[in-house]
Amino acid sequence: MWRLSSLLLVGSWLLAFGFSSASAMHESAARTRVEEALERLDSWLGDGERAVGWRRYLRTADLRQQLESDLPPDRAVLQEILQRYESGESGLDRHRFVAVRQALENWLAELPPLSLGELPGAARRAKQHFSPLTDDDVQRAYQRLQQAATDVERLVRRWSAEDRERLYQAVDWEVFQEQLEKEPPDLRTLLSVSRNFYQDTPGLELPEWGRLRKSLARYLDTRRFAENPRAEEFYQRYLDEIAQRLETYAASPNVEDHVIIGQLVGWMERYQQVEDLVAAIRYHHSHPNFHLAISGPLLQAGIATELDEQMTVWEEILGTTIRANSHLQGEVTLDLVPDDERAVLDLILAGTVNSDNTGYNGPVRIFSDGTTRVGGRKRIAIDAEGIDSSPAVVSARTRTRIRWISARTPVVESIAWNRARRTQPQYEAIASGRSGRRVASRMDARIEELLATPQARFEEDFRKPLLRRDAFPRELAFRTSEDQLFVRLLQAADSQLGAPGAPPNAAEGYDLSLGVHQSLVGNLSQALLGGVSLSDQQLQEFLAQLLGEVPEAFRIAEEDEPWGITFAAERPFHVQFQDQGFTVALRATRFRRGDQTVRENIEVSATYSLERTADGAHLARQDEIDIRFVDRPKMRVGDVAVHTFLRQNFSELFQEQFATEGLELPGRWQDAGRLILETLDSSDGWLAIAWNHVPPEADEDEANGEDEETGPSEEPQAESDEDVVT
Which residue, 633, 557, 623, is CA-closest to 601? Predict the structure, then answer.
């Protein structure tokens, strides 16, 4: 035992030393490449006045200090130096400058990332590395904005005059162009116009508009930061707060710290500060907040199809016109293909085509039977761009049996038989090829038809609306193993963080499992509803689309006073999962009803317990819904009417009880059976749910009370009317 434990200890030490040594070797080699590239640049620059200016701008002395120090390099300093090489100054595109830049990038990539415990200290040390934005930075941002605007105009010029005018009016393009011609543009006007670029208008999802939004945001941020005399003060204060909140969050994770850390990190990112620290915080605190896994058998249940098709085909082979009455029988099944970069599925066709053929060649009639074995495969790939498919590949092998030949005379009939026997192998080869191409064409057409709806829904209901708001997920990844399809998603804008880690109770071994972190709800609602004003009519339409029906309290009657609500800009709708329950809250900054308008932060919330039952899930609201004015503890007299109206309406939206009985899947899966809830867990900010598939025949057996061993259950027979009543 001593020897075994000693060997394990030594082996572990050697393994750790090996990894550490390998990392150090890579980092040392990367450092050497920086030294060599810098020496070549220095030698080329020489000793003139221009060389001195370049060395000062590129902070060559600071870089040499990092290279020569025995201490680990300061990532923040290296990042600041790299920013100088990436600044776009005239001349930096020459290959000697580029060589140093690339070597620096590789060195930074090889450095070990900051550990979780190092983050607070790194934030405090970064206070001395404030990087002011200059007039040159503003000018470069302005030039990029002008170029992005030119690219949009070049794009829109190719549209019809009607579409171009519609979009230009929607975004107030004329006002935007007027501002670009001013020197400098008015920040308030540009900020007001920029909000139009994020509306849900067709066309704004295109890459040119996305680049314009980013360029405009960068210009606004750069100017505000460069013109703010207190920029460094805010920078240092926010770094202190980041450090403090990182420490409190590590000691006791909580929603407030998590949200504010995300906001402060977003501030640093917007104003181009401490990029290395920002990346490290995201690395440790912002992980995918949505996980989905679907089993191969469940996918198979909705995709597997029995084929039974009849068709009549006319074609000409070797000079003979043939009419074939064909009958295809077979099945289409699913095969998952392991792939770590995307989800890959193969649809596999196996079937037989039996045909009754009549051939016409002048006065001769040839009657035959044909049997064609077909096998096909069509590959489907799913990634963040949507669903794509490759052309079907089908193989076919035809065998024919001539039953009889009819001709005018026995001589012609004999000649026809001889020719038919002689050309039969060639005929079968041609028929095999044509059958394969015909089946492949039909397979492509059928699958493309089936994929058209989900692809359109992905584009129109998910991808395009989020792209228009610059809210498409930071990460949307698909992959497949031999028996499961996986989806993971990170929904987090620049001022948001995702989940702090993986789901604590990942459901494995189920047909369908889902993990949702509370940050997903808040982050996504901010992208879709943040700052949005809805009238009662618009809210009714929104609830109908979201819930499938409009709750009674939100249905508009003729005698009702019109009302409206403006959602909060940050986390207008959020949820907190904890202790086998959750709290859901809606936040608004303005409420209007009739002539009365309340401009205050209002939060409407409800807390539910969550319980798994024999049939599904049961949600029970704890107490009444809570309505509070966030910025003051007590209501005023004028608030009572608003408070009462909100309670009446949202009490129906946040009902006292919810219950589910299994899960019904859409489309073809409806006929494949139900999904029965197997696990339900709400804790540590995560909601984890898992279902198993129950085929229709199993449901029927359960309904009939059948059991494989004992057979149908038997009820005692009533012996009289009295027994029946009893």
Answer: 633
